[in-house]
Amino acid sequence: MSKILIVYYSRKGENYWNGSIKSITKGNTERVAEFIQKAVGGDLFEVETVRSYSESYMTCIDEAKQELREKARPEIKAYPDNFEEYDTIFVGYPNWWGTMPMCMFTLLENYDFAGKTIIPFCTNEGSGMGGSERDLKKLCKGANVKPGLSIHGAESEQSESKAAAWAKKSL
Ligand SMILES: Cc1cc2nc3c(=O)[nH]c(=O)nc-3n(C[C@H](O)[C@H](O)[C@H](O)COP(=O)(O)O)c2cc1C
Q1: How is the chain split into domains, by residue range?
Q2: What is the pLDDT of residue 12?
Q3: Given the CA of residue 17, which atom of ligand 1 is nearest to it?
Q4: Angstrom distance (rounded) from CA 6 to CA 82
Q5: Which residues are bridge partners to 15 per DSSP?
Q6: pLDDT at 60 over 70
Q7: What angle do CA 134, 136, 139 make, to 5 degrees?
Q8: CB 17 within 8 A of CB 152
């Protein structure tokens, strides 16, 4: 049986929400990650950066833009244990400036993906998956990157049935 890992980054604090700024205590991507785990099982792993981003949405936007420009690889607190044992990896993230937050690049660059299946999911405020699937294919050489799921961040709380059906179908 295939062993499943659900790895995600999600930021709490102020976020852009249907045209205004709102503070959230649980990240949108985290909610979707939990729905996926409930539907298909597997181990859940949250990526956390050593230096946290600003609570302020506007400051965080600038920090993220700078990291993207510099192709930064922000340090992360921990890596999943026994990564090589997983053959199916759901990879979740918010869309930041059209792709994944750079800490996901830090994580993914670390592994050999030959023979593994990646199933991406992304929450966003309208840009969908952006270029993230293309970036995943570049980064995770040898992986079979399946079509991703885009969820409107503000509707993540109501996305359980959509996420569950997609996750089951993707396996
Ligand atoms: C730094 C930053 C950059 C963002 N860039 C985009 C973007 O380019 N396109 C988009 O649709 N949403 C963008 N958003 C909105 C987030 O993708 C969206 O709110 C997402 O659901 C946040 O997920 P999280 O709560 O799991 O972090 C951005 C948010 C932040 C904080």
Answers
A1: 4-170
A2: 87
A3: 19
A4: 13
A5: 22
A6: yes
A7: 110
A8: no
Write down the residue that tokens 């833009």 correspond to: 65
Ligand 1 mutation target, pool 7, 8, 11, 15, most atoms within 8 A of CB: 15
DSSP 111: S
Nearest CA to ligand 1 atom 22: 94
User: pLDDT (tens digit, 9 = 90+) per residue, 64-99?
Assistant: 999 999 999 999 999 999 999 999 999 999 999 999
> What are 127-152's pLDDT values in tens digits?
999 999 999 999 999 999 999 999 99
The first and second tokens of residue 47, run together, are: 């990526």
| Architecture of the structural domain at 4-170 | 3-Layer(aba) Sandwich (3.40)
Task: Give yes or no for residue 128 CB within 6 A of ligand 1.
Answer: no
Average pLDDT over residues 143-162: 97
Q: At what angle do helices 28-40 and 160-170 cross, to 10 degrees?
A: 50
Q: Where are the beta strands (DSSP E) in the chain?
A: 4-8, 13-17, 20-24, 43-46, 88-94, 117-124, 144-145, 149-152
- Compute the mean pLDDT over every residue in the chain, rounded to the nearest whole number: 96
Euclidean distance between CA atoms 36 and 21, whole angstroms: 27
